[in-house]
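Help: read this over?
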Amino acid sequence: MKTTKNISVRVLGIFIAIISLCVHSASSIAQSNFQIDAEKIELIGGTRPFKSDLEIERLSVDRYQVFFRLHASAPSIPPEFALTFRFPKDKVNQLWNSQTWSNRSFFSLPSYDRAAADFSIVSGLTLNDQNQITFTSDDRFDSRYISTFVQEKNDTLIFGLGFFADNPPISQMQEYEVRILVDLRNIPFAEAVSDASKWRLNDLFQQAAIKKQNDDYPVYSTWYPMHRNIPLENIARELDSLKTFGFKSILVDDGWRSLVKMKVDTMYDYDENSLQTMHLFNEKRKEMGLKLYLWYSLPFMGGNPVITKKFAPRYIRYKAPMQIHVLDPRYPEVRNHLVSTYANFYESWPSDGFWFDFLNEFYPNAPTIICDDLGRDFIDTQLAVDQLMEGMNQRLQKINPGIFMGQEFASAGPDQAAGQSFLAGFVGINSAAVVREKMVNNRLLYGQHTPFMEIMGVHPRDKSEEVARKLQAILFGNPHLSFFTTTLPEDTKETIRFWLDYWKENRKILMESEFEPMQVANLYPIIKVANEAKIIYGLYADYNLSLPLVVKQPIDVINAKESLLISFVVNHDGSGYDYEMYNHMGQLVAQDHLKTKRKNTVEVEVPSGGFIRFLPDATAGR
């Protein structure tokens, strides 16, 4: 695209002044001494027939909110354009993007990839994970028509926001405003990303804080047993044995529909024997005080011939592998059918809530040809899905005002409509690193309200030590476990019980305290959480961990790696530390005093899957 140079002198002057203020407090930026001038800023593409203006609000030192507005004299199609600004390349060693994961959360310099997504926070950081620049944006379309990109040019990084290039809204508009957050503070990048997410999703965070329930974790999921074709009645008989694990709720995976033969996505035809099994299961979990959630998805798609004929041709596409038509939610009669499907089922078999899946199935394959209007009241599919969710909330809340409806936030990860892979659960230990990355990205964006839900399956042949390390991969998220208790060895059961108890005992520090992942480019080999009462480190690869001169609160260092040696760095000769050591089943295996003598590095063997706990110095409070 060609750079536009003919914008008004007034607008260009305001633009330069505002961006200069964003990154140049007084005469320089405290952290980078970077100055902005006209040659470093570009408006790419034309905005006609819209006129533009900018203004800025200073939120704090080196943190700013930029407003870019378009206005036209008559309704017009939104223009395609981009805003770019330049940043010194030597200030940034890594790039982090909220919408890529599975080995792609970061970009190592000097090689850059395009970082684009529906909702994106991009952070440029140093090798020691300090923020140099973090930015994001928000508009009335929830940023779905905004892309982010980073380019390298000589000694400069070009950070940009592209507008209305991909699948732009068809409707015309007269006014448009986008807010852009620019954070130049020299702070841990995790803090900058978290603050950007709160800025971006402030209303949702407030709603989640009101609705948040902390009494339904940890969760037992039927995901793994169900997919091993174990009938629901067998799992119902196992509920008594689940008591010893301290689960608070049960998530019944989507597989229950085929196992119990409930055709609720068609004409609400129930198999009486299956329905009786479900009722028995429901009553038993109530007696145990367990909450119940259903992973429920298929009604979003119409596979039954009766439904196919009834709504023809109101489909958004045909899903070949499953041989079903995906209903088009842009039609009110389609949305009413889907809402009624849920309501009719919920009245027959109530639970504490639903988890939804396959919402991305409503998005058409690109490019989409819009055919004759057969009574649509929406053009934008995403807005229609929002209306569908709102309708389901209203209808089901009339039945149960306290019903839980899906995730408060979207999971951090790639746009699933693009056909990229998505992990719903994992079994093998080799998946733990990718799962941990996804967990960390969710925590960075959503804090204690994280929607992270990676179900950990336990195979009967798993070594108990590996089970501990898999649990440690999801320890800083909301634990969802799936297994069949009768097939597990006793040492595996003991391991699961211990780490679930550990999570519950330390939930406040694990989920609500300061969260600091380290070494982005290495997939976060160390994670730290801390508050006044305790410090916990999760160590997933070799790392030299610094110990304080004086231990003021207990410090747990969890060895979530396969090797035993952990290296500790001390900055004072002759430091001493009292400690306890536990194996992967939580059994105490050693109590001793660690004396560093004249060394500044000391190595300790800690059981794999276990942890070492440094005890507070008795003189620390004196």
Summary: The first strand starts at residue 41 and ends at 44. The two ends are 67 Å apart (CA to CA).
